[in-house]
Amino acid sequence: MRILFLLLAVLFVVLQAVAGEPFFSSPMRACRFRRGFCFPWQCRRPFYRVGSCGGFRSCCVR
């Protein structure tokens, strides 16, 4: 019976850790989360690169 309580406590701790992890299904969503825009190749003048949107696209923010 004590093992059941221990397993329940471990499950609770694992689920708490998983709930705090951000999950993005695509690089474009991650870019939008950073308040960025996806530009082909390189970022234009008032923007600077903070990541990639996949392929040849760059994630740019102002």
UniProtKB/TrEMBL annotation:
Protein name in the entry: Beta-defensin-like domain-containing protein
One Pfam family of this chain: Defensin_beta
GO biological process, one term: defense response
InterPro entries: Defensin_beta-like
Taxonomic source organism: Phasianus colchicus
GO cellular component, as recorded: extracellular region
Signal sequence interval, chain numbering: 1-20
SUPFAM superfamilies reported in the protein's UniProt record: Defensin-like
Residue stretches making up the Beta-defensin-like domain: 29-60
Keywords, sorted A to Z: Signal
